[in-house]
Write a structure and sequence with these properties.
about 425 residues; four-stranded mixed beta sheet; 13 strands; about 45% helix
């Protein structure tokens, strides 16, 4: 009998323990947010570099650890993003994505297509004061805010410092200095100068930067200064100072060509230093892009924007997370880019302090338009013709053609 009593008592204890565990687990399940895959925040980002994709993916994973609504990230090129968006994304008032991380020059187009949500209520004075003042213009329209700066990745001049020292060459500050170096470089067996001409956005931004150094704008492509820029391109092409391969090079292809020694100098984004750190075979350095009549510092970078009305509140929480100082600092360190917030830090070593400060405080946003995709296609089409033509290029005619195409794109939009 005693044994049976002990067994009943033991059984009772086991039942109580199991019941206690069941209650705790039930409470735990009730307190947990049930995460429905259909409810995830869908993020599209236009990053093609592997290290940049890994960085953003890790941030999303970190966010998901404690998020009520998880996020998922999809990477695509800017060209792919344009194909998705301009094929009808958002025109029915519903968006297939909730957050977009893309080049700031695309924002006016997205605003015009009614794809982006007005986030003016989010961009308070306190929020704005965290950021540099000069990088906001492409993020707003009619006094309303539609996106927030996320990265600052300016174009710079990369050069092979070993060969520059060996040949006792002066680093070109102006295009005049560049001309003086031409003769000494021509016997090296490598192209003197390279830039990415495959993607319309890359080539257009660079072209507008060159225009800015002459004092001209996008509306003055057939002015004397605009003609001068095309003249310069024709000249370096006819002297064999640029590789004919640039028309098939994007920024990553160009970086590989520079790393392999096929290009002696290149104009590329600052973030490419993160690639060269791993692949560079020789010492190199960076300076500002050579100028013509005046120095020009152009802001270039990505922004965060919200495209979903249905998941606006959840997506704002993700935006809060992405814009935390520690996360912006992680992006700066991994991308090797400049900070967008005043308390941020540049983790690279190649930008001299004076040049860094000028880029941070004096850079201006390109005068972007809602017709930017058509404008960039027009610029690419005309300059592509200049670069590949075997016949004598009529520079004035090309400048007039370009001016007409840009004017038409702006008016039609």
């Amino acid at each position: 009998m005693k044994i049976e009593k002990y067994l009943y008592a033991l059984l009772g204890i086991i039942v109580l323990i199991l019941a206690s565990v069941w209650v705790r687990e039930s409470v735990h399940v009730e307190n947990q947010t049930i995460k429905n895959p259909e409810e995830k925040i869908k993020v599209v980002a236009t990053y093609e570099q592997i290290n940049q994709q890994k960085t953003i993916k890790k941030l999303i994973e970190k966010y998901n650890e404690e998020a009520e609504v998880e996020a998922e990230i999809i990477f695509m090129s800017e060209e792919e993003l344009k194909n998705v968006i301009f094929a009808g994304e958002g025109k029915d008032g519903k968006s297939k994505v909730d957050m977009i991380i893309c080049n700031s020059v695309l924002i006016p187009s997205l605003i015009d297509l009614n794809i982006l949500q007005d986030i003016s209520g989010y961009v308070t004075t306190e929020v704005k004061e965290r950021f540099y003042d000069n990088i906001w213009s492409n993020n707003m329209s009619d006094g309303k805010y539609y996106s927030i700066p996320f990265t600052s990745d300016p174009y710079v001049l990369y050069y092979n410092s070993f060969l520059m020292d060996k040949l006792s060459l002066k680093i070109p500050e102006t295009w005049g200095d560049y001309e003086k170096n031409v003769q000494k470089i021509s016997d090296l067996g490598s192209s003197y100068f390279g830039f990415a001409a495959k993607e319309a956005e890359d080539l257009t931004i660079l072209y507008l930067h060159w225009l800015a150094t002459t004092g001209a704008s996008i509306r003055e492509t057939n002015s004397d200064y605009g003609i001068h820029v095309l003249d310069m391109l024709v000249d370096i092409k006819e002297r064999g100072l640029i590789s004919p391969n640039i028309i098939s090079w994007n920024k990553h292809d160009l970086t590989r060509a520079f790393s392999d020694g096929r290009v002696f100098m290149m104009i590329n984004t600052l973030s490419m230093t993160s690639v060269l750190e791993k692949t560079g075979h020789f010492p190199y350095n960076i300076k500002e892009i050579p100028y013509d009549r005046k120095k020009a510092f152009i802001y270039h970078g990505e922004t965060l924007c919200i495209s979903s009305k249905e998941k606006y509140t959840a997506t704002v929480k993700l935006m809060d997370f992405m814009l935390k100082e520690e996360n912006l600092d992680t992006v700066c360190e991994e991308f090797q880019t400049l900070p967008v917030i005043k308390s941020g830090k540049y983790h690279g070593t190649l930008l001299e302090d004076d040049l860094k400060e000028q880029m941070l405080n004096n850079a201006v946003c390109l005068n972007s338009f809602s017709s930017w995709p058509r404008i960039s296609d027009a610029v690419w089409d005309e300059i592509y013709h200049v670069l590949i033509s075997d016949e004598d290029v009529l520079v004035k005619k090309s400048a007039d053609n370009l001016s007409d195409k840009i004017r038409t794109a702006i008016i039609e939009q």
